[in-house]
Amino acid sequence: MSTMIDRAAFGAQLKAAMDGQGLRYRPVAELIGVSPAQISRAVNGQPIDAGATVALALAFGLPLLDLFDDATKARLARVMVAQRQAERRTEDGEAEAMKVLDCSDPTGKRSSEETNGEAKPSSVSPQVSRETSAVEDRAA
Q1: Which of 76, 87, 101, 118 is 20 to 30 A away from residue 18, measured at CA?
Q2: Is residue 138 exposed (0-12), middle (13-18) or buried (19+ Cβ within 10 Å)?
Q3: 15, 25 in Cβ contact below 8 A?
């Protein structure tokens, strides 16, 4: 499967944009850094390199998605849907993890509302508590 640019449609859009603004190939080519020959090829529906295609589309405000043929647009749409689904799964997983961890934000800090403005002690294992008490006793 290859990505296909609808070159005829792109050429027609490019020609209409240039004609509508009264622009000629050479000055446009110099401004955006492509050759006049590339512009001529694009306007005539012939292949040009991807960088020139994007530069011309952006220079004239042509939506990049509109450059692709219908089959490529359909593939891109499937990819975008899959990305959104993956993002939702990730967000749902993070929300579930935060519920399990009983925290309100990804940093693990509780808001003052959740603690009623008071600092709640964290649960510490009995071993750690005994060791801390022994260190405190020696220091006193």
Answers
A1: 76
A2: exposed
A3: no
